[in-house]
Q: What sequence folds into this?
């Protein structure tokens, strides 16, 4: 249902992650900002957008993963009571239990401006840049981009029972089983084949349309450049249909999925959106995105396949019993209370492929393209990109009590108070200042390191062009440290925070009142502080909302930040 728009990559910058012991309190992970990837839990609905994926949990909350350039993977302001969802090009629609529609994400064409009165809706469908909503009275409301008339519902606007929004065209199913189509029609996507009767479901793609007949037969029309209208034989037994940008999906009554059409991305390279993973059984719902596909299993799990350039196919793990989280800006590590690690996000270098045995971990640290896990026996496991030896833990690999991961380098704190650093040393980040003793905590920024001494002082080394290693006076009374891209944070024993280094976005300017803090985290150009009352304060660059902790801003027990995103762990598992 989506237009032919090329993926524009986001420059992601590594920054410090935090970790906690596996025997700490555990809960659920909440994420906000851009390129957010957060655990999803069990889903009851799915919807695939252009480069992102959307799901609805049984508790009525939405979850999303993948590209977040317009906030489409960020939770809506009031993330409760959703009964239906639809993912469009770069925006989402959801119906609330009161019949109102919530819209979030890209609003360039007003596709998120739900017309008044916002009530009485029973279904929604998000196109590439326009939106459709079906009223209880059988009328359709359309808004957003309308250059092809895709929002001009034909007269009479009555008796509709289903809707489907494509890239630039729209479909409506009437109660008599006929289909009405309007909008862009250069490929015949609005020319419903005769006989126009007996339809029970519809779906609109990029330049083609699908209709499901009462007997389980699929009818396809419109653009067929990639065979997206060539329904495979036997054309029978279908219970659901989904039209993607240039591919099609059909769900069979036996729980299997049939896929046909394009199997390539926008550069005509293999993407695999039609290659349904095995075992191809047990599916209850399907959704076709721009160049990826989703399938929902009867147990609430999601299977994703196809293009994964924006992590739209990296389905996050169940969201429960997390003791710590670490985020690099593109991939995440979550430490479970049972000592296992859940990893999700970008896995190009294998940074999310936790080595076996995945057990006995006490801390995690996500570097830019590599990962670290600290075992309860004091050894470190490293995996992912290893171009500078950042995954080659020096011998003896024992006696470690803390870990941190930076840009192509790693740190480990020994039980004797010494720090070991390995990987790239371009800025001297592996040269621990003398005396290398008395350290009780470590932090890794992009190219600089921090070490907290037992006397409450901080030592900084590595890249220092922004003064990120120059600890302000008085250098005493510190109890925690955090390092961002080029700035540093220190938490004092009195609950105040000190920030220094690069401050172009105000990431070092702690908001007033600067008191009552119990934990800190540094993102690329923003900072977080956890208050003793369980609330989170964020400051610095906020272009993607990474400083705005979601409501209710209470009950947090851990915080972490990476790149342009933020994370918190809550005790309340109903969140």
A:
């Amino acid at each position: 249902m989506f237009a032919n728009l090329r993926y524009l990559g986001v420059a992601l910058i590594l920054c410090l992650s935090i970790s906690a012991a596996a025997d700490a309190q555990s809960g659920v992970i909440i994420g906000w900002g851009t390129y957010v990837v957060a655990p999803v839990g069990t889903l009851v609905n799915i919807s695939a957008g252009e480069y992102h994926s959307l799901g609805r949990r049984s508790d009525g909350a939405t979850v999303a993963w993948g590209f977040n350039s317009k906030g489409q993977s960020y939770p809506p302001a009031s993330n409760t009571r959703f009964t239906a969802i639809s993912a469009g090009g770069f925006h989402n629609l959801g119906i609330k239990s009161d019949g109102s529609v919530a819209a979030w994400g890209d609003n360039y064409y007003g596709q998120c401006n739900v017309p008044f009165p916002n009530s009485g809706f029973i279904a929604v469908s998000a196109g590439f840049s326009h939106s459709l909503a079906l009223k209880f009275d059988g009328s359709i409301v359309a808004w957003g981009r309308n250059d092809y008339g895709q929002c001009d519902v034909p007269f009479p606007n009555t008796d509709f029972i289903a809707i489907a929004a494509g890239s630039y065209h729209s479909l409506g199913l009437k109660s008599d089983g006929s289909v009405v189509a309007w909008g862009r029609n250069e490929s015949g996507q609005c020319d419903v084949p005769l006989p126009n009767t007996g339809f029970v479901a519809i779906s609109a793609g990029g330049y083609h349309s699908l209709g499901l007949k009462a007997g389980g037969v699929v009818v396809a029309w419109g653009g067929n450049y990639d065979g997206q209208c060539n329904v495979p034989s036997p054309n029978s037994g279908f219970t659901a249909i989904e039209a993607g940008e240039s591919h099609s999906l059909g769900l069979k009554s036996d729980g299997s999925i049939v896929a046909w059409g394009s199997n390539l991305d926008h550069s005509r390279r293999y993407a695999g959106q039609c290659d349904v993973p095995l075992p191809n059984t047990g599916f209850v719902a399907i959704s076709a995105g721009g160049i990826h596909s989703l399938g929902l299993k009867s147990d609430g799990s999601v299977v994703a396949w196809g293009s994964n350039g924006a992590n739209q196919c990296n389905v996050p793990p169940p969201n429960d019993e997390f003791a710590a989280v670490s985020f690099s800006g593109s991939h995440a590590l979550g430490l479970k209370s049972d000592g296992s690690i859940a990893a999700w996000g970008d896995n190009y270098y294998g940074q999310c492929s936790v080595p076996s045995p995945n057990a006995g971990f006490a801390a995690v640290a996500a570097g830019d393209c590599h990962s670290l896990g600290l075992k309860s026996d004091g050894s470190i496991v490293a995996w992912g990109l290893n171009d500078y030896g950042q995954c080659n833990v020096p011998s003896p690999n024992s006696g470690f009590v803390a870990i941190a991961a930076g840009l192509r380098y790693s740190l480990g704190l020994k039980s004797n108070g010494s720090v070991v650093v390995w990987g790239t040393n371009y800025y001297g980040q592996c040269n621990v200042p003398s005396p290398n003793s008395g350290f009780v905590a470590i932090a890794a920024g992009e190219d600089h390191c921090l070490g907290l001494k037992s006397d409450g002082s901080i030592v900084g080394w590595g890249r220092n062009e922004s003064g990120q290693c120059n600890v302000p006076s008085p250098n005493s009374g510190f109890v925690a440290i955090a390092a961002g891209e080029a700035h540093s944070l220190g938490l004092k024993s009195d609950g105040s925070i000190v920030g220094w280094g690069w401050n172009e976005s105000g990431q070092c300017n702690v908001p007033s009142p600067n008191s009552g803090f119990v934990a800190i985290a540094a993102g690329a150009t923003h900072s977080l502080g956890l208050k003793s009352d369980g609330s989170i304060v964020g400051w610095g660059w906020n272009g993607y909302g990474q400083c705005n902790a979601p409501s209710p801003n209470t009950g947090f027990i851990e915080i972490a930040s990476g790149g342009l995103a933020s994370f918190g762990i809550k005790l309340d598992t109903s969140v």
DSSP finds no helices and 42 strands in the chain. The longest strand covers residues 556-562. Residues 471 and 495 are 17 Å apart (CA to CA).
